[in-house]
Design brief:
Length: 347
């Protein structure tokens, strides 16, 4: 009897110690979190990028993101019902620092027709936040996660049918800057590729709905940068000066097609492939899968137009995956000379 009593007392004491340790650890964590400075994330529409993070310590970062369904031109003369994060395709870019605590507030506007949620690939946890944020129109949800892994990550709606929500424009990117920060550059841009599926062909005109069977068959009517065929051309072209060091945060929202990202007239000095911390040098074209990303860096050498394309070139010249970077500055004939045309000699 005494032995049994002694065993039970020891067991109770051990359990009490475990509970006390857990409460102490939880209390210490709560105190650490409560002491963090609080800031609200600056979210900018593509191709703009939120400013670099200059602080050297963690913070609690509040991210306020809305879900908005809206009709907009997918190409001049043709309209489409986009589902968006923040009213843009891709959704507004989020920028935090490794070690930050991120509070994500998702609001599904009352004007929406459907429930939505968000799955962030930067989240370490089941569903990437999707189950915590599934909300009907007119509702909001929030959850908190620790930005543990530096890199460039895709986020997207994960409400069924998931491919349909993504194909309607519900994707974007979150950059988790490493603790030491990124090397300064002259300009940063945010570009994402996506594939869209309509009954009509590219530029058919009028209002075009989503075509589920074409999506299942992966027969895209449009392959676009930043959600429209003219998002990076004409007055919307990216700009730079000669000798600018450029960084492009490039992602592929999909839902189906891999991108062969290439810039005609430039060689990438560095490509942080898969959106991670390792880089390859002197790259002509980089493959980016649906739900993936890459960070490309290059220096503009001469004035003129550089052309962004998916080098599966039918997508560039027939389905919209094309953009322009207009570079201004002095000519540098030692690098690139003017062409000289003349007739062939008949002798």
């Amino acid at each position: 009897m005494k032995l049994k009593s002694c065993y039970l007392n020891t067991k109770w004491a051990f359990k009490s110690l475990l509970v006390f340790s857990a409460l102490t650890a939880s209390s210490a964590w709560a105190e650490t979190e409560a002491a963090l400075p609080i800031e609200t994330a600056v979210l900018l529409a593509p191709p703009n990028v939120p400013p670099a993070i200059t602080r050297k310590t963690p913070a609690k970062v509040i991210v306020n993101l809305t879900v908005e369904e809206m009709v907009r031109e997918i190409t001049p003369g043709t309209k489409y019902m986009f589902w968006t994060f923040g009213g843009t395709v891709p959704g507004k870019m989020i920028r935090v620092r490794e070690g930050d605590t991120v509070e994500l507030n998702l609001m599904n506007l009352a004007s929406s027709k459907l429930p939505h949620n968000i799955d962030l690939h930067a989240v370490s946890g089941p569903g990437g936040g999707a189950s915590q944020t599934l909300i009907a129109p007119g509702n909001q949800a929030k959850f908190t996660f620790k930005a543990l892994n530096p890199g460039l990550y895709v986020y997207h709606c994960a409400t069924a049918p998931v491919a349909m929500h993504i194909a309607n424009g519900m994707y974007g990117m979150i950059l988790v800057e490493p603790k030491e920060g990124l090397t300064p550059v002259d300009k940063e841009y945010y570009v994402m590729q996506g594939d869209f599926y309509t009954p009509g062909v590219f530029g058919a005109g009028g209002m075009q709905p989503f075509d589920m069977q074409k999506s299942i068959d992966e027969k895209a009517s449009y392959v676009l940068f930043n959600g429209a065929s003219n998002s990076l051309t004409g007055k919307n072209a990216l700009t730079a000066k000669v000798n600018d060091k450029i960084r492009i945060f490039f992602g592929d929202g999909g839902p189906n097609l891999l991108s062969s990202f290439h810039i005609i007239g430039a060689v990438f000095d560095k490509v942080y492939f898969e959106g991670g911390l390792k880089f390859q040098e002197q790259v002509q074209t980089t493959a980016v899968p649906p739900g993936g990303s890459a960070i490309v860096e290059f220096t503009t050498k001469v004035p003129g137009n550089l052309t962004l394309v998916d080098h599966a070139l039918s997508r560039a010249f027939h389905k919209g995956a094309i953009g322009i970077m207009s570079v201004t500055g002095d000519e540098r004939p030692e690098i690139y000379s003017k062409g000289i045309h003349s007739k062939l000699s008949t002798k």
